[in-house]
Amino acid sequence: MGAGILECDVTFTKDKELVCRHSQCDLHTTTNILATELAGNCSVPPDYTSDKPFANVKCCTSDITLAEFKTLKGKMDAENPDAKTLNEYLNSTPNWRTDLYSANGTVLSHAESIELFKALGVKMTPELKSPSVEMPFNGFSQQDYAQKMIDEYKAAGVKAKDVYAQSFNLDDVLYWIDNESKFGRKAVFLENLNSEADLSGAISRLPLLVHEGVNIVAPPLWALVTLNAKNQIVPSDYAIKIKEAGLDIITWTLERSGLLKNGGGFYYQSVADGVGKDGDTMVMLDVLAKQVGIIGIFTDWPATVTYYANCMKLK
């Protein structure tokens, strides 16, 4: 679909190997682990003495080794905590999702993702996920974790200019800037902004980010836009101040919202009164690209962004 950069969310296993997973503790909802012997290794295994054996189940990559992780099969992210049987729990995909392509998904180590992306000829944007276990983990510190991720790109011969290492943890980004300067130049600080009440703090952080050597900031797309008096989408004060500070912007995530006729939810919260049809996705993208001046955008459906970029002759 034309994506030029692909993401692996990075977490680690019991033997401190890096793997691709959106969360360290999502194996019970995204794989078949509960249907295997590894279910007994889970942090909170099913309680078959209860009438709701899966109510509190929790299975983490840190519960198993890389070799064990590689025996699992991926599935669509879904759970039913009220399920009474394993089959009922595993077959709980919401009706707005599909299992058509995910019955036997291949789970990947981080190193395998690098080789796949190299073969596809794309750049890479790994996200160092926040650990769900206490750090250090069996002597594995947060700094070890951040370093190991970069080391795997170096071992694979990937040039630093082709890697956008990212984290919601500013200390991770600063570690890369201080210890892996070539990778640090394109390190991305992900701003975890949930509502407009968070914007003042984000604005006040900008001088610190500049002072510490951060070059790229990545807030959610709603934080970069607002509505003018005519209910048109325009850059927010925050977006303007980011550019004034000399920082580049990447944003997330296009086409992860519900129908825009219903306001678009989280990602459109600042402009909900200005959107009313699915085509407004293109309006949002146009404002972000031309007026806000983003250098990239995460999307669940790259073809939309590729189509727009080709039409507008953007790189």
Could you outline the blueprint of secondary structure elements for this entry?
Blueprint: E1 5-6, E2 9-12, E3 18-20, H1 27-30, H2 66-69, E4 73-74, H3 86-90, E5 105-106, H4 110-120, E6 123-124, E7 127-128, H5 142-155, E8 166-167, H6 170-179, H7 181-184, E9 188-190, H8 199-212, E10 216-218, E11 225-227, E12 233-235, H9 237-244, E13 248-254, H10 280-292, E14 296-299, H11 302-311
Parallel strand pairs: 1-6, 2-7, 8-9, 9-10, 10-13, 13-14
Antiparallel strand pairs: 2-3, 4-5, 11-12
Features of this protein?
315 residues; alpha/beta; five-stranded parallel beta sheet; three-stranded mixed beta sheet; 31% helix; 13% strand
Brief overview:
The protein is of the alpha/beta class and 315 residues long.
Structure notes:
This protein is α/β, with parallel strands linked by helices and 315 residues long. 31% of the residues lie in helices and 13% in strands. The protein is built from 11 helices and 14 strands. Strands 8-9-10-13-14 form a 5-stranded parallel β-sheet, with helices on one face. A 3-stranded mixed β-sheet has the order 3-2-7, with helices on one face. Helix 5 (142-155) packs across helix 6 (170-179). The chain starts with a strand and ends with a helix. 35% of the residues are buried.
